[in-house]
Amino acid sequence: MIALTSWLAIDRLLVLVMRDLAQAQGWYAQRRVWQVLVLALGGGVALVAVLRARGLLASADAATRWAAAGVILVTLVALLRLVSLHATDLWLQARLAGLSAGRWVEALGLCMTVAGVVRTWPVNGR
To answer: Residue 125: pLDDT band by 50, 70, 90 thresholds?
Structure first.
């Protein structure tokens, strides 16, 4: 998912399309209100999803929980990119050791997911 969105710049394309649409329809000046509402709604949905996943994963093994947490982390970063508020953009684009903070968090989520999935693979037929 990270490689595909980086290569195709889907998140950036969607932001630009929505910005052009807002300008064409005359509600560009009010976009901040909508961005905050979308962020709040997305945060609420994410919180409910995390709480629901926590309940579903309570009986799962640690590897499955790591994989799920990684997927949630990558998804949250993608949603923050789509909202495109100045504060979230500044945080996501802050440079750390040559990469943006957003890419570091995505990489962490990807590593967590891969580590969880690899740990669930059977070893020597077990």
So the answer is: low
pLDDT tens string 54-110: 888 888 888 888 888 888 888 888 777 777 667 777 787 888 888 888 888 888 998
Element (H, E) at 95: strand 95-96
**What pTM, to 2 d.p., does this model score?**
0.65
User: Are 41 and 83 in contact, with CB atoms under 8 Å apart?
Assistant: no
Long-range contacts (CB closer than 8 Å, 24 or more residues apart) made by 98-106: 102/77, 103/2, 105/73, 105/77, 106/2, 106/73, 106/74, 106/77
- Alpha helices, DSSP H, located in 9-85: 10-25, 31-57, 62-83
Angle between helices 62-83 and 10-25 (to 10 degrees): 30
Rg of the chain on CA atoms, in Å: 17
